[in-house]
Amino acid sequence: MKAIIKSLLAAGVIGMTASCTDLDLKPESQYTEYPSSEIAQEAKLADVYFHLRGTLGRRYMEAQCLSSDEWVGYSFGASNYWDQGTYQHACLHCFSPDDATIDWFEDVTSGITKANTAIAEMGAESTGSAAARAMRAYYHWILVDCYGDSPLLNHKMEEGEVVAREPRAKVTEWIASELEAIIPQLTTDVTTNTYGKPTRWMAEALLAKVYLNWPVYTAATADAYDANSYSNPKLQRVVELCDDIMKSGKFDLVDGAEGHKCGNTYRAKFTPDNGPHIKDFIYAMPFDAITQQGFQYGRPRTWKNAKNYSYYGTKLSNSVGGNFAMTPEMSDLFTLAGDARNEMILAGQIYEFDAVTYAKTDKPYQFEDKNVVLTKDINIVDSVYLAVSNDVDGYSQGYKSVKWFIIDADFMNGRHQSNDLPIFRLADVIMMKAEAILRGATATNGDTPMSLLNQIRAYNNAPLFTTAPTLQDVLDERGRELFDENWRRNDMIRFGKFESEYGAHKKDMKYANFDPKHRIFPIPTSVLSKNEGWKQNPGY
């Protein structure tokens, strides 16, 4: 379980291997000491802040959403979106160490190395150091959440230094202590200039996530966690962190989205023109189809033949995938009368949207002069390839979504999009507080789980709770509100639902796996091949 660090790549990638290729590095800067000006620090930190833009823009998303009850990644046969089974393996929980969907371990360690380099060069007492430490903690959290035992890379590595995978609980405890230490040092400003960068509020939201999942992350093994006996000494701290964010006055559920040209406050948070004006966003990854590329959520979620004339109201310059379909179980959540969130779901008859306003019209969407109608259920005709028929009927299996709305001005640039990706939102924080209280924390500020969840329901014009909600109600509300934002797998594991049957993850489906060890992903082959002393995660 150990490896020798021979050297660091110039871009900051850690070569975690017992027999790395030697790389002679030249200093990236002309300075022997890193300049302390705010401008110089910001330039250094930019690469730390936005390092995972490509990973979060596609592959991380695939691993999260396809392994949850949100999406099924089907193929249209062996030569049409089978892609060595990478999407299907995630849906069936039969992950392979060679799957592209989970092959970003080294992307994350590279980000950690960049953060460590920045901290070392700027000095621990610099204003930028706390921000770099927050990013380092966030990157470590991704590894802990997704791969379990992880290297604890909390300093700049020296040549020949031994790196081991540490127990998941140990790394989790370090993440928590690190965040507790730096929260007072981080900026409380919420401006255009702090957008996409770590702030006090970002660190508090991340820490609340760590603490809410404390029993998951500190269990002896991934499969040892039992949701039915959830016990958590950190719940009151979750409430305190959520309260600090909620009482800051910096964030709002509707400010910046209300009155949008699309006519839907919820959808306005995720359209191509979203950004720092959306006050629900505590921390987001900014994307631009030309200058900040990487975001590619729309392609697989769009009906297969929607190119020459798409339901986005315009012709698309590039083809779409159409190989993701919502599971019937997730589709059933979007049935609350009047709920604004329902409008992002394409169910039954598809209708066109206005290409300028992004608003839904009453014009049926057609293909070859026939209305396109989606079915909620998915008919798998070949379980080996998790395939539907390669025709209009197959393309119409399962509901779709326009949450990540496409415009061709973006899509023509390598199928990239300019929709920014929220990572932490006020809505999430409100629901975390509700869950913590339901699980045993003492309520504060007159809030109850019902009053908190009703804040979410009210701004979406959904029916309000009239009786005390249950934990299942919390999970369902999180499913609606945070749909397709990469939190569902995390939630399902905590609530004990990850091994349930949903989508293609059914017991009568060939290759479907229900081993709770698969709550974490296998270590990618590319990583193991460089670290001969490391062992594959149990169950793989």
Tell me the number of helical segments per DSSP (H or I, 4 or more residues long): 20
Largest sheet: 4 strands, antiparallel
Terminal CA distance reads 16 Å
Query: What's the CATH topology label of the largest domain?
Result: Serine Threonine Protein Phosphatase 5, Tetratricopeptide repeat
Strand percentage lies at: 5-15%
Low-pLDDT segments, ≥5 res: 1-32
- The count of domains is 3
Radius of gyration: 23 Å
- On the 0 to 100 scale, the average pLDDT is 92
What is the number of beta strands? 16
CATH architectural designation of the largest domain: Alpha Horseshoe
Global morphology: globular
- Estimate the helix proportion, in percent: 25-40%
Going across the biggest sheet, name each strand in turn: 2-1-5-4
Detail the topology: elements first, then pairings.
Elements (H helix, E strand, L loop, with lengths): L1 E7 L5 E3 L21 H12 L3 H5 L1 H9 L3 E3 L12 H7 L12 H18 L4 H21 L2 E2 L9 E6 L1 H15 L17 H13 L1 H4 L17 H13 L17 H4 L12 E5 L12 H4 L22 E3 L1 H4 L13 E2 L1 E2 L1 E3 L6 E5 L1 E2 L2 E2 L1 E2 L17 H4 L4 E2 L6 H4 L9 E5 H13 L10 H11 L11 H11 L6 H7 L30 H4 L12
Antiparallel strand pairs: 1-2, 1-5, 3-7, 4-5, 6-16, 8-15, 9-14, 10-11, 12-13
Structure in words:
- With 540 residues, this protein is of the alpha+beta class.
- The protein folds into three domains: 2-206 and 515-528, Serine Threonine Protein Phosphatase 5, Tetratricopeptide repeat (Alpha Horseshoe), CATH 1.25.40; 207-286 and 420-497, Serine Threonine Protein Phosphatase 5, Tetratricopeptide repeat, CATH 1.25.40.390; 298-415, no CATH class.
- It has 20 helices and 16 strands.
- The strands form seven sheets. The chain has a four-stranded antiparallel β-sheet with strand order 2-1-5-4. Strands 3-7 form a two-stranded antiparallel ribbon. The chain has a two-stranded antiparallel sheet with strand order 6-16.
- A hairpin with a 2-residue loop joins strand 12 (366-367) and strand 13 (370-371).
- Helix 3 (59-67) packs parallel to helix 4, helix 5 runs antiparallel to helix 6 (127-147) and helix 16 (426-438) packs antiparallel against helix 17 (449-459).
- The longest helix has 21 residues, at 127-147.
- The protein is globular.
- Mean pLDDT is 92; it is low at 1-32.
